Amino acid sequence: MTDFTEVWVYLSASPLLFLTLTLAAFQAASWLYQRSGHKPFLNPVMTAVILLVAILTLTETPYPAYFEGAQFVHFLLGPATVALAIPLYRQFDRVKRSALALVTSILCGSLTAIGTAVGLGWSLGASRETLLALAPKSVTAPVAMGITEQLGGLPSLTAVLVILTGILGAVIGPLVLNLLRIRDWRARGLALGTASHGIGTARALQVNELAGAFSGLAMGLNALATAILLPVLWRVFF
Amino acid sequence: MLSALTLILTCQLIGELVTRFFGLPLPGPVAGMALLFALLVIRGSVPETVGALGDALLKNLSLLFVPAGVGVMAHLGLLGQDLLPIAVALIGSTVATIAVTALLMSWLARNSLSPEATKADD
User: Fold this and answer.
1) Which of A139, A219, B10, B111 is 20 to 30 A from A146 in CA distance terms?
2) Alpha helices, H only, A124-208
């Protein structure tokens, strides 16, 4: 019989193992989420990530080795973002009818995201690097990293805060919305997309296509608004 | 299905090229989304295969964030000394942003509310 370690070394050298493990972990996490009756704190992204981190830590697998396999899943983020045009097109009549309201709401949401993140961080004594990474944290990762870099911050720290914000929004967002008694799907989607970009949009799409369409639109418009406003605001205040 | 995949990837590729070339503050895929949207408006409907592929991708959108999420956990050390300000800022700002956006939208758009747009409770 071959040694288990030998088999592991063989398997972990190919992308197949970690690709399969990523899918399996997500399936398990989704199953748990369904069984719990959709408890927000059992968000499948979060559970799957914790599961995989535990596996990587136990097997002492470095992240680049894991990403060899996981990159095939990661790659699909681009095409999926393009595909957000489809729910947007299907719901376009409703988007048009509330165009002014949604642009105003996203702009105010965008300013709130920047202002409260920097304000809270600053009042608790966060460093300049941290504030620069916190400021664009509600924006989709590539844009947020670009903004931070442009202002002289650390893009890698920004990426971490962006993903954490996404998961956080998907987990606590529905709770906040229920607490505020927001029953309008458009408002729910818009809020999740503005506050927590693609991860919030994924959550919105799972529940309702109308919410998903508004969420995807909010993600795109907030990225644009933040990319234009944040560098100006930063230079005014700092 | 192959033609739908080609169409979506082409939109993304053109999106990447346009944003790089003009230095637009948008990720390539978001520009690709705008392009695909424009094409759908011109055509006047969603081709069946494109709709099927798009729905399949979007139904599993959460899964696609898992590799990035694992990467984040591997880099939590970057949070360093500012752990407390970061935690407070992330939670406070996320709650505030969701509340402001949702309250404003549901108030501003209250007149264009259709019956099927309500009854949200998830």
Assistant:
1) B10
2) 128-134, 141-150, 155-179, 185-207
Would you tell me how many other CB atoms lie within 10 Å of the CB of residue A57? 11
CA distance A2 to chain B (A): 31
Report how far Cα B122 is from the mean position of its chain's Cα atoms: 20
- Where do runs of H (alpha helix) occur along chain B? 2-22, 28-43, 48-59, 66-74, 83-108
Quick one: tokens of A129? 């690097």
Residue A211 to residue A63: CA distance in whole angstroms: 34
B48, B19, B69: which is closest to A223 by C-alpha? B19
Burial B100-113 (b: 16+ CB within 10 A, else e): bbbbbbbebbeebb
CA-to-CA distance for B122 and B104, rounded, in angstroms? 20
Tell me if A86 sits within 8 A of A34, measured CB to CB. no
Query: B29 vs A82: CB contact, 8 Å cut-off?
Result: yes
Of A176, A184, A218, the CB nearest to B95: A176
The answer to whether the beta carbons of residues B8 and B40 sit under 8 Å apart is: no
pLDDT digit string, tens, across residues A109-137: 999 999 999 999 999 999 999 999 999 99
A50 closest CA partner among B78, B86, B69, B61: B69
Q: How far apart are CA A133 and CA B110, in angstroms?
A: 35
Task: Identify which of B54, B55, B101 has the shortest CB distance to residue A191.
Answer: B101
CB B90 within 8 A of CB A165: yes
pLDDT tens figures, A85-111: 999 999 999 999 999 999 999 999 999
Per-residue pLDDT reduced to its tens digit, B21-63: 998 878 889 899 999 999 999 999 999 999 999 999 998 999 9
| Alpha carbon separation from A166 to A76, A150, B13, B17, B66 (Å, rounded) | 18, 22, 25, 27, 12
Q: What is the DSSP letter of A11?
A: H
Q: Which residue has the tokens 């392009």?
A: B35
Rg, C-alpha atoms of chain A:
19
Distance of CA A204 to the CA centre of its chain: 12
